[in-house]
Amino acid sequence: MSARKTPPVHPDLESVLFTEMQLKRRVRGLGRELKEIYGAGEFTIISIINGAVMFTADLMREIDNPVRLDCVRISSYGTKTKSTGVPQVVASLTLDIANRHVLLIDDILDTGKTLLLVTNLVRKLNPASLRTCVLLDKQGRREVPIEADLVGFKIPDKFVIGYGLDFAERYRNLPCIGVLKPQLQNPPAWA
Ligand code: 5GP
Ligand code: MG
Ligand code: MG
């Protein structure tokens, strides 16, 4: 019998930055960091969708604190791979967060405009505290002064997909995070 080769995770990926196992391990670590911050206390998670869905779902299951969950939907990149224009709130919060401890979660911090927009929105609602957590941080790309309190991984300036992150709404369901092949980084026919 011939040796079986491991199939590539996805043919549209140029490379894999983080495997499913590496993501799991880091998310578990972030769960421990949250435990150090919040102890056994209650807090409200605000997830910036759609990108942060996978990360939020996995991180929530690493903690046993009493948590509430709400989401904000922010206008997306469309089919482009670079941040353009000003992000807009498409759907806002439904929970009352006044005097509550809030943890804001996003998939990736790039120019910083999205996180700044949402932190400003949340601050106006008078939370007891506000912390931010992103899975990925493209530090070199910042255009506005904002940093996250908790960061999963720092990454170089590459357009990444998978584990919630999309290109033209595709690839969110990849279990790993990788770099899309450059020849596919134009608006494709199916978009
Ligand atoms: P920012 O407002 O910081 O420029 O961008 C944040 C948002 O842009 C993220 O929530 C994410 O939706 C999107 N984004 C930024 N960089 C990437 C990337 O490399 N890949 C994907 N798929 N989305 C990105
Ligand atoms: Mg996003
Ligand atoms: Mg997107």
Automatic annotation (TrEMBL):
InterPro entries recorded: HGPRT (IPR050408), Hxn_phspho_trans (IPR005904), PRTase-like (IPR029057), PRTase_dom (IPR000836)
Enzyme class: transferase
Pathway recorded for this protein: Purine metabolism; IMP biosynthesis via salvage pathway; IMP from hypoxanthine: step 1/1
Pfam family, one: Pribosyltran
Family from the record: Belongs to the purine/pyrimidine phosphoribosyltransferase family.
Ranges for domain Phosphoribosyltransferase: 21-167
Organism classification: Bacteria, Pseudomonadati, Verrucomicrobiota, Opitutia, Opitutales
UniProt organism field: Horticoccus luteus
GO CC term, one of those recorded: cytosol
Protein name: Hypoxanthine phosphoribosyltransferase
BP terms from Gene Ontology: GMP salvage; guanine salvage; hypoxanthine metabolic process; IMP salvage; purine ribonucleoside salvage
